[in-house]
């Protein structure tokens, strides 16, 4: 398959800085001055202020060509500014792509979509690992050249199964876990180990139809629009920070099967956007909400 | 103001028949034959079958020009077919427009919208009555030539206030009550008196954010889309059959005030569609759901 | 891969009748009576009247279980009704799925999408043949078990190349040709041979940006929404009857590459809907327009 | 009518700076430093870089409470920064609202919408003047307390009519002219006098259906979506920079009248957004395109 953006992607050598701190006069001046002093060529900058929580949030991406120091030493150079404003920050280098694991059960539409987008250059990450509690997607994984691990999950073996999963995440040095219609509830321990590192797709317009069988319940309630929601997984089921939502129109002519079919198109788009925004460092989290710098 | 469709509207002389009955072979043949025998010129016909509930639902509209009998005697002519298939039916004549009352509190955007659409010929009904528990919309009512009645509602006078309302509905021969952001909860007695005759606009994507202050709760939850829902009022708050829903996209940049503002545009469109479909006999109800023949 | 709807699909044994004729009283009565007399169990019926062109259009689907004659003899049984009303009609049996060929150049997103939907049971047709003027999609075709034929197309060999294509269509008994981002203009001879049997996806909101490089031109014009359009191919480029259109919102932050990326999601959905509606006999054509019975 | 946001609006005392200049390192640092030195409390900042045209564009809004100098003297204080980077800039003070004239023919839906939004506090501008070539909207203007001037326009009196219009714009000190379905083509002289100061609503998804009767042509072409476009008026008809676009879905059941009715809802929303963004200094223009800082 032709990798459309591979050339430009490989050529890209940028740093992306995400910052959260209490809002205060002079923050932008301090950051902009720091970057200017070190000869950063800013490509994109975006910021947000939350008055209610008195928070300042920023994303800035610059070309590393001509930048005055090795970004590996960013921490020490940035310490003075960072300390002055009490910043939480993270730096992401385009040449160190995130490593993503995908967990899936038997429905393969989100998985097939993510793998195809990745191959076509839409997702600038590595996808070295697929874990499933079914064998259905093994051929697909093989076609795209991704390691596939089958781990059965039952009521009785959950602890062991998750232990196996953790060990695979460690072995493959995974940064992000994508639940691409993985029909198992993760243990609190699992969730706690990977904070802000697990993205799920829920097949409803949250907070409507939390929990199981949302399309069936949407059908029963007689809604006129169905939705899908991608979100970070937190300790409470389907209550984590929402990243993206999409909807489609339905009518009385649509049966549950039609809702499921229409829903698949929503799930694909809504999940792939969340993954792309995460790996491109476009998401900041606060107060159980997301800021998306798109 | 120019009434764009007045001429064609006045010229229109049609009958619209809505039918619900158990599904059975031969229903369409029987209805089509009945209409053909009486020389009906069918303009639109639409039907729906619900396999799960074994129901047949139909809407058919025909030109009364050349129809072989006075539609006032429809009941006796149609009795044989109707009895054979155990039909529930209603007949609506375009020359007998429904009479609509609008109830409103201080937010006037839905009211202003409905009155403007009515004046412009989009809503083929009469709107003789506006009832409000505030004086804010009195000037608007006067501008559009609609009788305005102020009825204060407090915790203590609810029974008397509703009695006054019932008496106005009777006096004005009201067929449909539209709650155009009327911020009072109707008593069970009120709701029971006007079954399938009260349409409300709820400012969320139901069933998310049932109850009060939905925009505030949507803001807190961090959703990426907000919605509005028009529905028939039933005994349980915000649980009646949904007629129409709309959504709009929001981002982290939107404050509660922005949600409220964007929501107003949704509410206007979503409520006006529900009113139009109702007065044009496009809605059939079953199993707490609506079939919309649009 | 799990074929979600395979069981129900195989069990399905229905006939779908599409009718176009001059509008006249008694048509529905005649058709409904015909079906009732022959013990048809109607599952869906939908009709449309076009007053301007005095046309009646109908789609009716019934269960063949219990139907009183072999649908292979439909023509002779239906002749009296058909002649009386001067009908054009076509009958489609669910157990004789259409045979579809897909033509594609190097962009594989629509192809991958159609093959995946087909495998998952969303598209009730056979897909025995893929033709491409590039080798890029050969592995994908092989993965899904579809015959792949490479036919180079140059300025000089167009006639020979199309002759090869025609011969493949004949050999594989193709009913429908889907241009899934096939970047070659078909000759008038090609188009004339397969009337109403070629579906194309154009990557703009037609009639805006007819012709080449629509995303680049959309970017230059500064539009705020981009679109995609699926349509039947007719003799004039991008002027055939439109089947479906979709749009997505863009902003000044989107570069041409972003438009192309967002466009891919539109193209997938808009093309797959057109293919599905065609193979389910949901489309009627008149006056260079489509009626979609969905 | 209750003016929902009046209190907060009156309290608001901010300055908004719009900047366009060639892109160069250090711009943000210089602006941020300038604002910090003068004790500006930044409320919102947004920027955009256009690589192709090597342009930097920025919008920044700050609270004037505590700002170190009178914004009337902004030009001299900002001169050094502005000259260094070769900036074009404009400063807008919230306490000096723009003065808007609305021109309208007989269709009043956009006018009614703008006046209602203004009254409810959605549009922070003054609307002192309505000009029409029909008398239809006079009562509406009066209801909302806006001066109404009737100026007939014929083939023969166009120059005189426009002269009258210019003199009214001068008298009322108009900053922005909104064509709210004004069905007359402005002369080149008119357009040249008010560059980037005239906003029009076109009832199609431009660039499709440029010119007259777009809904009729959309109907004939058989499109599945209709649109509306708000744009600045430039010398070439319907070719000015696009500000906002909206679409709605239609089907074969929709007649031209239905397209017109659905279109009215689009036009209202799309025009009012353009007006709001203009008066809130959210729009920057370059290369016949708009950047919207929303």
In a nutshell, what does this entry contain?
The structure is a homotetramer of 294-residue chains. Chain A is of the alpha/beta class.
Determine the fraction of residues in helical runs of chain A and give it as a percent range. Answer: 25-40%
Biggest interchain interface, per-side counts = A-B, 29 and 28 residues
List unreliable stretches of 5+ residues of chain A. Answer: 1-9
CATH homolog superfamily of the largest domain in chain A: Formyl transferase, N-terminal domain
Distance between the termini of chain A: 28 Å
| Domain unit count of chain A | 2
Q: What is the arithmetic mean of pLDDT of chain A?
A: 94
Please state the CA-atom Rg of chain A, rounded to the nearest Å. 21 Å
What sort of overall outline of chain A do the alpha carbons produce when their principal axes are compared?
globular
Strand order of the largest sheet of chain A: 7-6-5-8-9-10-11
Which percent range describes the beta-strand content of chain A? Answer: 25-35%
Q: Mind describing the biggest β-sheet of chain A? A: 7 strands, mixed
The topology string of helices and strands of chain A comes to HEHEEHEEHEHEHEHEHEEHEE
| CATH fold-level assignment of the largest domain in chain A | Rossmann fold
Oligomer: homotetramer
Category from helices, strands and their pairing of chain A = alpha/beta
Q: Kindly provide the name of the CATH class of the largest domain in chain A.
A: Alpha Beta
Count every beta strand of chain A, where a strand is a DSSP E run of 2 or more residues.
13
């Amino acid at each position: 398959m032709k990798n459309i953006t591979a050339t430009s992607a490989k050529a890209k050598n940028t740093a992306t800085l995400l910052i959260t701190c209490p809002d205060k006069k002079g923050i932008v001046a301090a950051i902009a001055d720091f970057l200017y002093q070190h000869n950063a060529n800013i490509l994109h900058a975006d910021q947000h202020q939350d008055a209610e929580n008195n928070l300042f949030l920023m994303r800035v991406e610059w070309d590393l060509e001509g930048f005055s120091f090795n970004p590996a030493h960013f921490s020490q150079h940035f310490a003075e500014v960072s300390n002055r404003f009490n910043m939480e920050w993270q730096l992401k280098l385009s040449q160190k792509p995130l490593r993503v694991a995908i967990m899936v059960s038997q429905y393969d539409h989100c998985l097939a979509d993510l793998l195809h987008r990745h191959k076509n250059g839409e997702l600038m990450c590595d996808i070295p690992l697929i874990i499933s509690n079914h064998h259905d997607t093994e051929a697909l994984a093989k076609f795209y050249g991704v390691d596939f691990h089958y781990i059965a999950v039952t009521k009785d073996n959950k602890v062991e199964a998750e232990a196996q999963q953790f060990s695979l995440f460690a072995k493959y040095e995974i940064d992000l876990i994508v639940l691409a219609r993985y029909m198992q509830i993760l243990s609190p321990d699992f969730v706690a180990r990977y904070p802000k590192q697990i993205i799920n797709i829920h097949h409803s317009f949250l907070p409507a139809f939390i929990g199981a069988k949302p399309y069936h319940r949407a059908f029963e309630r007689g809604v006129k629009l169905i939705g899908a929601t991608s979100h970070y997984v937190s300790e409470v089921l389907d209550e984590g920070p929402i990243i993206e939502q999409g909807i489609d129109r339905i009518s009385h002519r649509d049966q549950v099967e039609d809702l499921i079919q229409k829903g698949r198109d929503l799930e694909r788009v809504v999940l792939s956007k969340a993954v792309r925004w995460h790996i491109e460092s476009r998401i900041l989290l606060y107060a159980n909400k997301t800021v998306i710098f798109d």
